[in-house]
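Table S2 (continued). Query chain:
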Amino acid sequence: MILVTGGAGFIGSNFVLNWLAQSAEPVLNLDKLTYAGNLGNLAALKDDARHVFVRGDIGDGAVLTRLLNEHQPRAIVHFAAESHVDRSIHGPAEFIQTNVVGTFALLEATRAYWSALSENAQKAFRFLHVSTDEVYGSLGADDPAFSETTPYAPNSPYSASKASSDHLVRAYHHTYGLPVLTTNCSNNYGPRQFPEKLIPLMIVNALAGKPLPVYGDGQNVRDWLYVGDHCAAIRAVLEKGISGEVYNIGGNAEMKNLDVVHTLCNVLSTLRPGRDYASQITFVKDRPGHDRRYAINADKIRRDIGWQPVETFESGLTQTVRWYLDNESWLTNITSKAYQQWIDLQYARP
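Corresponding output:
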């Protein structure tokens, strides 16, 4: 069995579904079910005995100790995190609590559990920490892409909290010998993403005939990674990664935000014609401290692990839009009054 934290969220749920589609090995899924955690993401596993769901907090040491001792996982894949930059600007405390204090509690419980394993089980065990390229800061237009040796320079409360958790994971390896792996990924997109992030937000607003809010001049650049490719990369790192190593995961799809939105409008025009979606694009006041460019050098994972993305941005985006069009009831269920209040606050006109 493996333990997955945050397995009801966007990337975590896709990983759990992907894992159980390819493996008979059970998954113990621990999720707090905050606003972005959604059991509807896991509806296909409702009657699957291989999936054991527990609602709980990674910061609760007693719960962690009980689950680890009861289920004896051979690996932990740690997704659980507060992950939205805008929310971290408005309320950073929750990000420190979950991403830093929560990861510390998880590491402490894992260290105690791992220390009690047999020598062979200790060698085979892995703690895989899922992180972000945002810990590296912002790039200029001509700067080389982030590599695993790029110095950390986080610029938002979110990225600072993830950088802190990365450092804790590294320290537990070097101090205690805990066999850890860290992955730093670029911007994910795909099915089941909570619609506060760029792509699902644009889909929701486009379908509703609402403005498509683009920060600033829309020229901020991100590397886009389809969530299915990310899940495959994590599986590969878990299987082949060397303890203590860091692996950057990118989608080979560097694009300006405005170009992303225009491409999305074109896909929507093909899959659901009848409206000029691009006419809904609206520029809004820029995010404070908005990083200008992220880019990933994924040579290491390609060379050492043998992974590279399968999807192009266009193919992944088409799959993503089609999923949202086919699952409008999922959107209806999560776009609650609280969600609308958040969007109204965040994307108020200047």
